[in-house]
């Protein structure tokens, strides 16, 4: 249903370093680089960061949240570790999240601008 998403960032190069490391854990690579935008994806840009100079950090109460699919729990773990190593902060360590209808494994991070990003997979057991 959704073709691509984008988030605003205050410092394009800082965010590029963060997202290159973090998204690589999910198989997304930098595919497009322009003066004010960078696109990441597998075969075409699915995730964009866009320079918004002077942008204030995204407030935690905004409710903004993007979830990206991971193939394995190991990919979720790698996403989380890369995000923390690259300047992000934890918003929920990797682990099983039991839910009414499904059991899923996820990790939640906050990028340097306050954007909340999740990686999720649905283990069979």
TrEMBL record:
<feature type="domain" description="VOC">
    <location>
        <begin position="1"/>
        <end position="122"/>
    </location>
</feature>
<dbReference type="InterPro" id="IPR037523">
    <property type="entry name" value="VOC_core"/>
</dbReference>
<dbReference type="InterPro" id="IPR029068">
    <property type="entry name" value="Glyas_Bleomycin-R_OHBP_Dase"/>
</dbReference>
<dbReference type="GO" id="GO:0016829">
    <property type="term" value="F:lyase activity"/>
</dbReference>
<dbReference type="InterPro" id="IPR004360">
    <property type="entry name" value="Glyas_Fos-R_dOase_dom"/>
</dbReference>
<keyword id="KW-0456">Lyase</keyword>
<dbReference type="Pfam" id="PF00903">
    <property type="entry name" value="Glyoxalase"/>
</dbReference>
<protein>
    <submittedName>
        <fullName>Lyase</fullName>
    </submittedName>
</protein>
């Amino acid at each position: 249903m959704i073709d691509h998403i984008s988030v605003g960032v205050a410092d394009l190069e800082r965010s590029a370093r963060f997202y290159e490391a973090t998204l690589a854990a999910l198989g997304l690579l930098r595919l497009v680089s322009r003066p004010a935008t960078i696109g990441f994806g597998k075969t075409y840009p699915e995730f964009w960061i866009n320079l918004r100079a002077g942008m204030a950090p995204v407030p935690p109460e905004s409710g903004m949240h993007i979830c990206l699919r991971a193939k394995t729990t190991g990919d979720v773990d790698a996403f989380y570790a890369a995000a923390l190593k690259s300047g992000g902060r934890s918003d929920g360590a990797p682990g099983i999240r039991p839910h009414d209808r499904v059991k899923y494994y996820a990790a939640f991070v906050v990028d340097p601008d306050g954007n909340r990003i999740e990686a999720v997979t649905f283990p069979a057991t």
